[in-house]
Amino acid sequence: MDKYTLKGEKHIVDLIKEGIIIVSLESRIGLSGVNQGKYKNKNLVFKLKKDYIEDLYNKELTFDNNLNINRNYKYKDTGFYMMK
Questions:
Q1: What residues have CB less than 8 Å from 40, skipping those under 6 apart?
Q2: Does the pLDDT of residue 74 top 70, yes or no?
Q3: Stated pTM of the model
C-alpha cells in the first residue's frame, strides 16, 4: 500500500487538457416528486488510469503489506488489529 499527495490543482487542469484525466458528467431523469421528468446532475466523475497515478500524485510512503499480524484477535471495543 502506498501513500500519495496531490501535486497541485493547476496540474489537474493540465492533465485534463492532455486527456490523461477523463471528466464526465452523469445525469438522470427524476422519477418522482417535484423533479419527475426533469434531468438532474448526479455525479461529476474524474477517471485516471493507474499507470498515470504518479503524473498527478507524489509518492510519499510505501507500506509493507506482509506484516506479521494476528488477524484473529481484535482489541476490545475497537476495529484495530493487534500485531504479534
A1: 27, 28, 29, 30
A2: no
A3: 0.53
